[in-house]
Amino acid sequence: MKITGKVIKYGDNVDTDVIIPARYLNSSDPKDLANHCMEDIDKTFVSRVQKGDIMVGGKNFGCGSSREHAPIAIKASGIACVIAKSFARIFYRNAINTGLAIVEYDGDIDEGDTVEVDFTNGKIVNLIQNKTGNFPPFPAFLQNIIEKGGLLSSLKE
């Protein structure tokens, strides 16, 4: 499984309250959630995100509350993958469960770069900087969950 996209970058400690503010949690509609994704730290995110873009974060991405609304909002916004130096554990699990591809990677990626993520071989290629990095490859069962759109969808087959 490979994903290629343009990078939208954030820093360390991006918490779930920033990803989707609590005032919007009365909706479970992914499109509604996507309309408010990242709005408290980046008013331009919703207007500039394109289907297939890749979100990059720093350390402790997805910290805070355990709401699964956060990865749902990111995925519904069009983001194909989140790359971060580290993830809060509950966010990591919620992302996989909802079918949002995520990768822990400590390499140098800048806003606007285009990167290719190869989950099978554990490689990230920064096509702008012409650099390649490695991460532990995703096992086939995790790739299947993401490709099927989440844990429940993968179990239905």
Largest sheet: 7 strands, mixed
Overall mean confidence score, pLDDT: 93
CATH superfamily assignment?
Aconitase, domain 4
Instruction: Specify the overall morphology.
Output: globular
Which architecture does the CATH hierarchy give at level 2?
Alpha-Beta Barrel
CATH topology: Aconitase, domain 4
Helix content, binned percent: 25-40%
Low-confidence segments, given as residue ranges, are: none
Distance between the termini: 19 Å
Number of strands: 7
Rg calc? 14 Å
Q: What structural class should be given to the helix and strand makeup?
A: alpha/beta
Number of helices: 7
Strand content: 15-25%
Number of domains: 1
| Side-by-side strand order of the widest sheet | 4-3-2-1-5-6-7
Structure in words:
- It contains 7 helices and 7 strands.
- The chain is an alpha/beta fold and 157 residues long.
- It has a 7-stranded mixed sheet with strand order 4-3-2-1-5-6-7, with helices on one face.
- β3 (81-84), α5 and β4 (101-104) form a beta-alpha-beta unit.
- α4 (69-77) crosses α5.
